[in-house]
Structures are given as structure tokens and as C-alpha cells.
Design brief:
The protein is 38% helix and 17% strand. With 323 residues, the protein is α/β, with parallel strands linked by helices. It has 2 domains: 2-172 and 220-245, NAD(P)-binding Rossmann-like Domain (Rossmann fold, 3-Layer(aba) Sandwich), CATH 3.40.50; 188-219 and 249-316, Alpha-Beta Complex (UDP-galactose 4-epimerase, domain 1), CATH 3.90.25.10. The strands form 4 sheets. A 7-stranded parallel sheet has the order 3-2-1-4-5-6-11, with helices on both faces. A two-stranded parallel ribbon has the order 7-10. Strands 8-13 form a two-stranded parallel ribbon. Strand 5, helix 5 and strand 6 form a beta-alpha-beta unit. Helix 1 (11-22) packs across helix 7 (224-234), helix 4 (86-106) packs parallel to helix 5 and helix 8 crosses helix 10. It binds uridine-5'-diphosphate. Residues 79, 170, 186-188, 191, 204-206, 217, 219, 253, 276, 279 line the site of uridine-5'-diphosphate (UDP).
Length: 323
Amino acid sequence: MKILVVGGAGYIGSICAELLLDEGHSVAVFDNLTEGHRRAIDARAELFEGDLSERSAIDAALKSFTPEAVMHFAASALVGESMQNPSKYFRNNVANGLNLLDAMIAADVKRLVFSSTCATFGPPDRIPLDETQPQRPINPYGESKLAFERILRWYDEIHGLRFVALRYFNAAGASEKFGEDHRIETHLIPNVLKVALGQKSHVEIYGTDYDTPDGTCIRDYIHILDLSQAHILALDAPKSDFYNIGTGGGTSVREVIDTCRAITGCELPVVEKPRRAGDPPRLIAASEKIKRELGWQPRFQRIDAIIESAWKWHQQFPNGYGD
Ligand code: UDP
């Protein structure tokens, strides 16, 4: 298939593009390169540099590349920042995303795989979190993604847009070529590995008084290669739908740090800080629906394997993409 990967220079988009190309698909990337990196774009993919706020830029990319499907990764994705600057999140994730949908409908491209998030749920009533639970986001990031999910449902009903929205839990790890390099790094695993690389003096733990066994937040870390595979399966989904996607395992912040100690052999000093605004204590995915309906099977269940792949990439590219 011909697939336009919007946000294909970012962490998850770059690795999805790589996997699509490895499987023989034809790929073009649309990215404004503010969060993404030119060097994260696979050499086999064509680049359309542009911003979703400009409808004409996305119209031109669709006209020139004529894709059969779009994968949409381009969004602002930091919970903490969304609590400071909600406007950025609603503008980028909802208003600019609408430009993409309208351009797709105008160009008669009616297949979409959308990056959604477990942050659309807020603190869950039950763990693991399945698709039947109520969506009550507690930060503008989650709210913006939920708004887009709702828009997608209407675009399907009215325009016949066939979509799959994947609600990611915590994407982590790397492929051989591409990995996680944010200009301002807020994520746990890369921040811990930066300490191991000697680029930071210590790891900060945001909150040690949660109602969890060791007092720190629990997350479901999913290997980026397993997550990418799900996007490829989603291209062939028979109908529009929403899927939660994680491994079903929960790892606390302290357990992540201990695993990083074991893998890197570094001491990794920690400083305990107050809670970070907007963080639910425990998020674990129920992924039975995507396994059952799309045949998804994660290959990497253990946090060690995920962190090992990230450590390998960070050692090879200690300064990330260098921009
Ligand atoms: N966290 C932490 N120290 C850091 C970065 C993150 O203690 O330097 C915690 C954060 O509060 C959350 C968990 O680690 O409980 C995962 O955070 P991350 O930002 O990686 O992903 P999120 O779950 O927010 O998408």
C-alpha cells in the first residue's frame, strides 16, 4: 500500500514508517520537524515538510503522493505541558487534525490509523483498562485526543472515513535504527538512561506516596516494535474502531529504575520529588480486543527487553539525532 505517515519524523511515527517500508509498503512522511527530526526519516521515504495548520500543505502532499491510507502521529503529547498550555493542545491536536481529515475527505483518502492514548480515560474504575470503561480525561492532552476520537466517529458516519484509533499506553524501546529523542525529555526511561550516559546527575521520581506497592506510579510499557506492528494490522481492519494497546503488565517507576540499574550496570542516584500534576497512579491496558479482532500479539512482554533495546540505541546515539 501507499501510506502517508503524518508525524513520521517523531519517535513512534519514524519506527512505524521503517516497519512499513520493511514490509514492502511505499511511504511518504509529512512532518513540520518541530518535534521530529530529519534524521529520523527513513532514507527510503519521501518527505513533505509542512504543518497541519496549513491546509494547502497537506492538500499538496495528498495530491502529489496519492496515498491509500494515512497514519496520523502528529500531535503534542505531554501531559504536564498540556496543564500549562491547553490552547496548544486543542489547537494542534484538534483544530490542525481537522485540516488533515478534511483534506483526506477532499482527496478521497478514506483510511486512517490514529494515535490515541490511554490519557483519554483518566483514572480508571478497574484495572486492567478495557474499551468499555468511561472516558473522563484529567488533563487537556487526554481531552484533546478524546475530542478527536469523537470527531472520527462522525467522519465515519457522514463521510465514510474508515479509521482505527489505537489508545497507546507507554510506548518505549527502540528499533536498530530509530529511537526516542525529544528536544525536551520528560519521559521516564530516556531520562533514566541519560543518567547512565552521564548526561544527567540523577533521576527524579515524581511522587512516592501513591497508593501502589512501592508508592510510585505504575505504567504499562509497550515495545515500540509491537506498537508499530499494531498500526500495520490496523490498515486491514474491516471496520472503524477504538483499541487499547499495552502488554497488560504494570511496572512502577522504582522498578523501571532498578531494571535500568541491572541493564546499564550504573548506580543511578535518585531524588524523590512531589507528584507531577495530571498523573494517574496506575494505568494498565487490557488488549484482548485488538488481539481478538486484529490478531495482534506482542513479542516483548518483559520490561527488561524493552529497556535493553532503548539502552542499545541510546549508547549508539548518545546525542540522539544531534539536532
Ligand atoms: N516520571 C518520573 N520521573 C521522570 C519522568 C517520569 O518519576 O523523570 C514518572 C511520571 O510521573 C509517571 C511515569 O514516570 O508516573 C511515566 O511517565 P512518562 O512521562 O514516561 O509517561 P506518561 O505516563 O506520563 O505518559
